[in-house]
């Protein structure tokens, strides 16, 4: 086994967290070039950390390596979310996954589609009154309505005041997730973002308790109460909190924003192909997720010494896998920085498992099919009704944290098609 190149540095003094958060893509790119390796080590969050930008190594980490690692998120987000599937490992994780899987089976997905389609059709119809839209803001609003309607049974039309309150709470909750996990109330400030997030969590849990009793049998809150672990009230409440959090609509909005920026550069006939051909749409979605993953990476912690694709990983070391860099690994994707959806029909037709936006292996996102259904419904409805144009002269460069999105609000124009 080889030693991972690079240096973990001294505690605190050698920590590179600030450099990473300033620009994670540049930080990893620079270290890959310096170490002449897509796998290197550095000190991050004051922990010796192996950074991985090699596609094959990440694939092995998320599949075979899951036996030797744990997620390591609980210390950062455990208090914000409470116990749930994100913070379990081993047999418990498999047990919870099996329990929750019925929420995302074909029958359940079909029952959710009516709600998804209704909301998308209504919001797309409303675009006729607007000549120009801030793309990310529009997508975030749309995806938030879909997620809260699905997971909490909200009705945005009949309960505007309540829905606005819940949207505000989920936003405050989200800000706590991305803040330093220290709950401190300071005079005149009203408390840290983390402290405010904990208060928002309590309010959201109270709303969840109310919603569980009022939803129809086809809705998500009712279905989760019929899961094998539903006798444990905390299991139901904490997972409804997780699914209805801002994490999901943020990820959806990120993908859709990147996708419609690309769609806006296509000619009218190409946009028509996208609306009518499912294979073309799937290729576009794969390529957008390859180049612009909503979350640029993930984290694991080694439970024991183990061999990862020829590298020795010591017990206690963290592993940060960079989806952004692995998706641009030239050993897997030729012309890796080039946007080319056709690659998924030719050279990379068998490489769908090389995209790690939503993880992979036994800990891959349990709701990937639902995510796919939401994305396809929105794209098909918009491209069938409108021709999309990105306003010229805008800054289309990206920022990467906490989710991938343009640095500036990108304006797009939706021009109605004849007969739509």
Summarize the structure in words:
The protein is α+β, with helices and mostly antiparallel strands and 420 residues long. It has helices spanning 17-22, 24-35, 55-62, 74-81, 90-100, 106-126, 135-152, 160-177, 193-212, 220-224, 233-243, 247-263, 268-276, 278-291, 323-326, 368-385, and strands at 39-44, 47-52, 69-70, 133-134, 297-302, 306-308, 311-313, 318-322, 386-390, 398-399, 405-406, 411-416. β1 and β2 form a beta hairpin. The protein is globular. The termini are far apart.
Number of helices: 16
Query: Main beta sheet, described?
Result: 5 strands, mixed
Our measurement of the CA-to-CA distance between the termini, rounded to an integer number of angstroms, reads: 61 Å
Secondary structural class: alpha+beta
- DSSP strand tally: 12
Radius of gyration: 22 Å
Mean pLDDT: 89
Strand arrangement across the biggest beta sheet = 1-2-8-5-3
Shape: globular
Write the topology of this structure.
Blueprint: H1 17-22, H2 24-35, E1 39-44, E2 47-52, H3 55-62, E3 69-70, H4 74-81, H5 90-100, H6 106-126, E4 133-134, H7 135-152, H8 160-177, H9 193-212, H10 220-224, H11 233-243, H12 247-263, H13 268-276, H14 278-291, E5 297-302, E6 306-308, E7 311-313, E8 318-322, H15 323-326, H16 368-385, E9 386-390, E10 398-399, E11 405-406, E12 411-416
Parallel strand pairs: 2-8
Antiparallel strand pairs: 1-2, 3-5, 4-12, 5-8, 6-7, 9-12, 10-11
Helix pairs in contact: 6-7, 6-16, 7-12, 8-9, 9-11, 12-14, 12-16, 13-14, 13-16
